[in-house]
Description:
The complex is a heterodimer. The longest helix of chain A is centred in the last third of the chain and has 29 residues, at 268-296. The two termini of chain A are 35 Å apart. Chain A is an all-alpha fold. In chain A, helix 1 packs across helix 10 (217-232), helix 2 (35-51) packs parallel to helix 4 (85-104) and helix 7 (158-168) packs across helix 9 (180-206). In chain A, 74% of the residues lie in helices and 2% in strands. Chain A has a two-stranded antiparallel sheet with strand order 1-2. Chain A has a domain at 2-214. The model of chain A is unreliable at 301-305 (pLDDT under 50). Chain A is built from twelve helices and two strands; from the N terminus they run H-H-H-H-E-H-H-H-H-H-E-H-H-H. The radius of gyration of chain A is 20 Å and the shape is globular. By secondary structure, chain B is of the alpha/beta class. A six-stranded parallel β-sheet of chain B has the order 2-1-3-4-5-11, sandwiched between helices. In chain B, strands 7-6-8-9 form a four-stranded parallel β-sheet, with helices on both faces. Chain B has a three-stranded mixed β-sheet with strand order 10-12-13. The longest helix of chain B is centred in the N-terminal third of the chain and has 21 residues, at 2-22.
Amino acid sequence: MALVISVLEQGMIYAIMALGMYITYKILDFPDMTVDGSFPLGAAISTVLIANGVNAYVTLPISFLAGLCAGTLTGIIHVRLKVRDILASIIMMTALYSVNLRIAGRANLPIYNFDNIYDNPVMNAIFPSGMKMVQPVVIIAVIMLLMKFLLDSYLKTKSGYLLKAVGDNETIVTSMGMDKGKVKILGLAIANGLVSFSGSLYAQQQRYFDASMGVGTAVIGLASVIIGMSLFGRVNLWGYTFAVVLGSVVYRACVAVAIRFGLQSTDLKLVTAALFLLIIVISRQLDRQGQRRVQKNLGNDKEEV
Amino acid sequence: MKKKIMMMSLSMILGLSLIGCGTSDSGSSDTDYTIGISQFAEHPSLDNCREGFLKGLEEEGIVEGENLTVEYDNAQADISQASIISDNYVSENVSLICAIATPSAMSAYNSTMNTEIPVVYTAISDPVEAQLADADGTPAGNITGTSDELPVKEQLEMIRELLPEAEKIGIIYNTSETNSVSTIATYEELAGDYGFEIVSKGINTTGDVEMAAADLVTEVDCISNLTDNTVVSALQTVLDQANKAGIPVFGSEVEQVKSGCVASMGIDYYELGKQTGKMAAKILKGEAKASEMNFETISEPSLYINTEAAKNLGIEISDDFKSGAAEVFDSIVVDEE
């Protein structure tokens, strides 16, 4: 049971990061590697603040703002200095590595002895003692859903539609007299804000910051977005953002299944990759069947697809 | 509609396969133990730790395959992996978790916080810094183990004896490895006592090692290694640069001397593991509680010498000095790792 809870906890924390990746990768079509730096950025900021006695909840918006700045810088490097998208984000990611070390003051900072957003007198009073085990997972779910709905409602505003327009067809945005560069910077800022926010949640759940925490974040995020979109994108339950959330949980589950079935530890990543591939192939297969049926019925059941 | 159902069932299968085995019970008598070993990375020192750990348990009558089931997982230096590994052990309700290297120990401590499962760690340079123990050595929770703090003083003494003329010692370290940063501080504190000056170069990845080494060898009289995982992984690069410049490299443990360092006053990780295994045995048998045992360090560092490496650099090693060594290697053996 503890493993299932752990998968849900980590899956939903990483889901917020994946929502950020959804904005850059899916909406803006921007390969953003900044996340490898902005994820531990949020972690570093919140652990340092918590270790200095700042309330754990206060550190969440601060982490979000820090990520916002990081994303803005990536955007400025790309748009104003005209550096290629992936290169701009790699430059930012590299710089953030040192920034994170400076913020934390050292490579590894534990916060075992401090209250965090999951474990503090207020939350312990709200939750009955029998629910101790699921306390973090419930808190994470609430925060994650809140972020999801905030993002959903943002995407429905004028600014949100512009964001989608820039990803789909830049020319239209320009012909409307809008500055597509500004829109891109805004998108990157929001995305990295979410990633940094997720890093803060992660560091508090693990109760420590480590400089190497961010390695591979972009891969996890991309995998979550792709799994989510290909498995659940067509079902379209509560929007694409929810598909991304599910994708993140499924990705964590893949890792956990690989560990649980006691395969050779050296093969772990290979098994995770194989599960990942299997899911994508199966979902594509299902897609094809669906399309064939549509053709047969000459579009009679379009609604279902 | 059919598709929706298939999607759902696909995700259900994943979920159920986790829950299904989530309740697997060790279901054994009092004398049978199941332990989980969570190791952070694959590398000879840590592997030696694990083997020593099992040997230590064996010497106390807890033998793998007889009354002990061992689950072993390696996080491949991925922190999120380390935490899933220890969460998995908690869900299997193992009798004890052995955590090798700092990130694994921190994850294990975090995962077991609300349970009764004791954690025994090893290969941690500074348990106090990692907040796994208080400044006086008492455990922070139901967790104890052994530290691999380097015998810096003895290492400096040894270098002074082998190189009476040397002034500057070069050290390469990864700025994001906490253990290295704290060991450098100790080096700098003690170097003056032996008339040395420390020149350190910070790096971040194994890819940086070559440049740092090439730069360093022009400035110093010898290089001394830490237990820095990044630098140790690129040891051959360091040795190569040092040999070109004709200066010796001193290791931090036996494996490095085997593969070409001149000498080392270091830790035998197998022995460290064994000591840890004995502590774990006490906890498993109920003779002691992890929360009441202070962490331990290796009391006597051992000297290792590689005579071939010394000869190549024209360093004389007296027989008297050799007689104090735990092991003398007369050839350089490069492992296929």
